[in-house]
Amino acid sequence: MLTYLGYRLLETLAILTPYPVSYLLALFGANLWYCTDTNVGIIKKSISIALKKNIDDPLIGRIVRKIFINWAKNVVDFLKHRVVTPAGLIERVYLEGTENLDRALEKGRGVVIFTSHIGNFEWGACRIAAEGYNIWGVSLVRESQKTNMFFESRRMSKGLKTLYTNRMLHVLRYLKKNEIIAIPSDWDPTAKSSRPFILFGKKAYLPSGAVELALRSGAELLPSFIWRNGRYTHHQIIGEPVELEHSGEKDELINKNMEKVLTIMEKYIKEHITEWELFHDIWID
Q1: DSSP string of the chain?
Q2: Is residue 280 part of a domain?
């Protein structure tokens, strides 16, 4: 209940303040959080692995501080959902590659989108929904039902439906209806469906759900990533379908196709490293 009330309080503050003031408050909060050292070590570890630099390199510290700032701005964006219309979201997020999505949907087996915690991934899924597509975003389950409904209703205001990680039974039905499932693939919130894969040359626990779902359903598997391209604007891309391998044993197929997925993820993470907002330790020491 307290968490829910906290979100409502922050939302009210975000709505009552204009964007420049909201972002100024976000900057203050991000720097304050960074100074507490909470999660800083985890993110430094990930960035040092991605860039193959020593964790004590000053560059790593500067990047991590920027990550906290970008994350705080993304929180502000989410909290302003109630005052940003679908048309306003379309104006703020330039979406590239819808032709890839349209061609994939023409096959009639649905689409699985994989992404990572780069940029405002919440707005990324909402931006696709605002374009009129039937899309579900896979989400973690929070302890409070009111908090779940807080997030769910804000997403739904742009047309994005929420599919919780503990309620995946109907996912194949949605794909058979030629709908879209969007799944972040750089962290498993359940800690139950991940397995070791190589990311940036190091073993990490990563979820293979997007790949397995595409293989099982016959849906096309597409990448989509979003990043900032201005103070208040974003650029989002929907890439071409991943050419999946279909011949071989199950584990072999998952490994081969995950390698293709992770190669794409690595590219976008490195290109937008100051927006890789992964606050969890996925690495196998």
Answers
A1: -HHHHHHHHHHHHHHHS-HHHHHHHHHHHHHHHHHHTTTHHHHHHHHHHHHT--TT-HHHHHHHHHHHHHHHHHHHHHHTGGGS-HHHHHHHEEEE-HHHHHHHHTTSS-EEEEE-SBS-HHHHHHHHHHTT--EEEEEPPPS-HHHHHHHHHHHHTTTPEEEETT--TTHHHHHHTT-EEEEE-S--TTSSSEEEEEETTEEEEEE-HHHHHHHHH--EEEEEEEEESSSS-EEEEE-PPP----SS-HHHHHHHHHHHHHHHHHHHHHHTGGGB---S--B--
A2: no
Residue 285 within a domain: no
Residue 260 lies inside a defined structural domain of this protein: yes
Number of structural domains (the chain) is: 1
Asked if residue 283 belongs to a domain, the reply is no
- pLDDT tens sequence for the chain (285 residues): 788 999 999 999 999 999 999 999 999 999 999 999 999 999 999 999 999 999 999 999 999 999 999 999 999 999 999 999 999 999 999 999 999 999 999 999 999 999 999 999 999 999 999 999 999 999 988 888 999 999 999 999 999 999 998 777 789 999 999 999 999 999 998 877 899 999 999 999 999 999 999 999 999 999 999 999 999 999 999 999 999 999 889 999 999 999 999 999 999 999 999 999 999 999 998
Residue 169's domain comprises 2-275
